[in-house]
Amino acid sequence: MNRQFKRRQGRVAGGGNQSQAQQIQAQLQKIEQLQNELETMTAEGTAGGGVVKVVMTGKQMVESVEIDPEAIEDVELLQDLMAAAFNDAINKTQEIAQEKMGGITGGLNIPGLT
């Protein structure tokens, strides 16, 4: 009788593990789809009221940089504006990624996935 009980118990536990593995695989597929989606999404970072604009993908690759020609006269100001615009674009891409990932991971912060 003990043997039968153990066998039944093992089947139930094994079935639960298989279901959990399928759930994890489904989540991993969703994450992969999201990462592909992030490559096509863009965010625009600006500084100086639009004097410098940086367009960056969701994967934080720079697509374009626009600089108002008048900003070139003051190199130090231009450098500060460019840094601010890049930081703004990076922050926006991170926010987008966190919002998208939150739906998949249930709000868990998993390093390397965003």
Describe this structure in words.
It is a single chain. The longest helix is centred in the first third of the chain and has 39 residues, at 2-40. The chain has a single domain (2-105), classed as Nucleoid-associated protein YbaB-like domain (Ybab, Chain: A), CATH 3.30.1310.10. The relative contact order is 0.14. The chain has a three-stranded antiparallel beta sheet with strand order 1-2-3. It has 114 residues and is of the alpha+beta class. It has two helices and three strands; from the N terminus they run αβββα. Mean pLDDT is 81; it is low at 9-14. It has helices at residues 2-40, 75-105, and strands spanning 42-47, 52-57, 62-67.
Enter the CATH topology name.
Answer: Ybab, Chain: A
CATH class: Alpha Beta
Assign an overall shape: rod-shaped
Task: Give the fraction of residues assigned to helices.
Answer: 55-70%
Mean pLDDT: 81
Name the helix and strand elements from N-terminus to C-terminus, one letter apiece: HEEEH
Proportion in β-strands: 15-25%
How many separate domains make up the residues?
Answer: 1
